[in-house]
Amino acid sequence: MIHEALFSLWNCPGDLFRTITEEEWLSAIELEEFLHPGEKQLLKKIMELALSYHKIEYFRKMINNQSTILYQVTASKGNQDLQLVTRSNIRPGLYVKAFCDGLDKVLQSYRNTIVEIEDKFLKSPHLTLTYVLGEVQKFDILFEALLRMIRMIENENIHGVLLMSRLYLYTICGIPLIVDAANKIIQSVNTIFYRHLCNWIIYGELVDIHNEFFICDGHCPDENFWYTEQSSEDIVSGKTEAANTFRRRKQFQCPIQKFFINTELLPSIISRDTAETILFLGRIVWIVRNDPKKAEDVGYQLEYKRDIWDGKDVEYYQKIQKLENYPFNLAKFDKTIEECRQRITQVISTLYPILYNYIFCF
């Protein structure tokens, strides 16, 4: 009987997700008619916990297989059974897959516990159901929190970087087991977010096939970005004089790629001002690296992309990347973004004075 219970805690016999009640799930265990009524209650609690584990595993595997989620959640409170059947398509993306990778890491401690109990059972076959329940019951509150996360993604259609701010709430719940689990999951999600952030700020590139980052490519020229005609005599000294000179010149719309902030994907843990700074940094890097004005010339090509970081791109890339190893800290995040802004401002004021005057004199 103990072996069957341990097997159910790890493996999923039969078509679990068409099970309507815990009683049907319990009936899958053989020798039930030989159990004492007290043992039946213990076994039922163990099976309920196993059921929660298999629901989480089912979600994780279905996401990794990029399949449609179809699962049935059955909860029991007192003598009443509450049935919630959810059917929807989870929007594909790297963030939800990273979430599932984090789930896998969190569930590893549960799997290790089952293996340890199995080893003890082989050495001492007289272990009781009370002992098994005592060892695994600590995961009950954890599985409940993980299932709430899954229902949040499913029911509210949480997509992309928004997942970060929703998971952040679990890190301040005050329950150590849930906080540790949330931090592990967030660390997996951070990997995707900070790769997006590094590629945008350092290289001015958006690699976002699922439209999950809050900076978006408009795939068209930016009608709000105007570039001025330039000549050698146009370079003048003095902020006011430079501004007046630029205003007097004939302007035309230059094919600067349009980038914008998708407010629907902006996490609540990142302020709008910080998001605007991030947009500004990536756009300036894109302009310098692609030089859209000269790119219009026939036969003109950039053999090597210009380095606006003046050889410091790896250093600043690593500064941003280090943030992914820790829970989100707004002060550290804003400080790192500000360091990047100061560096870019310093470089373009020295190496690209016309671009600097155009941006900062208006």
UniProtKB/TrEMBL annotation:
Chief location category: cytoplasm
All residue ranges annotated as the Gamma tubulin complex component protein N-terminal domain in the record: 2-347
GO biological-process terms attached to the record: cytoplasmic microtubule organization; meiotic cell cycle; microtubule nucleation; mitotic cell cycle; spindle assembly
Keywords: Cytoplasm, Cytoskeleton, Microtubule
GO MF term (any one): gamma-tubulin binding
Family as reported in the entry's similarity comment: Belongs to the TUBGCP family.
Protein name: Gamma-tubulin complex component
